[in-house]
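Give me structure tokens for this 269-residue protein.
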Amino acid sequence: MDYQARYITEDIKLSSYEDKFFKSDIMFDHHMLVWFLSGETKIVLADATYFFKQGDIFLIPRNQLATIINYPKDGQPHKTVVMHLSVERLRGFYAGKHIKSQPLKSAKIFSFSSHPLLESCLASLIPYFDMKDIPEDIAAIKITEAISILRTLNRDIDNVLANFEEPGKINLVDYMEKNFMFNLPMEKFGYLTGRSLTTFKRDFKKAFCTTPQRWLTQKRLELAYYQLTEKKKKPLDVCYEVGFENLSHFSFAFKKQFGLAPSQLVGNG
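Here you go.
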């Protein structure tokens, strides 16, 4: 994978993938504002799938589990301007504003595609990527400008950006049943369910009577079988959407479980 990134600061970067595609399962530590310059992205959440292309602008909330698949398009690389809205930065922004955030019913991605205010703000960053020694206060001004615009465009955004709570202990069974397709370290699953790694493994074994890895593999294979037979999806798409890292590993595990390779199952359908 030919990946390049240029930074104004650690919170603002120009990201470019030249390869055929790039896939990653991610839990975002910061809110992430993204503006597409070229390429396409598919973002798979537990209960929704989003597609973004050139000109689109969107915000992914922190602590959001997602499968990200980036594609080049029309001979152009997958290129984005990315701005991290960190908790520390947002605490400073909201200090003294006396805003009480209300938890949203469900996490989602906020789309602001082709909005002239946001596009102008993010486009103004482009010249800085070719410069060195950019003063920190310039980056801070740009981030503050972006936050202010987001608040103007969507009244619900304060409920996301001004919420500084860390995940509390939640129902492990419900959470894992909803998010098993994301291939994350067990420490991350523990954090998102409000547990240490040791407590997560202990509670998991008590709830499911097996280890997390065995259960995750089984659930992902069952979902893959459903998507191949009922949704008629392609094996490559299914592989990445259910949590496997490469097609060969997926095919091996699938054949071991069901007696046929994914490609054979599709062919027989």
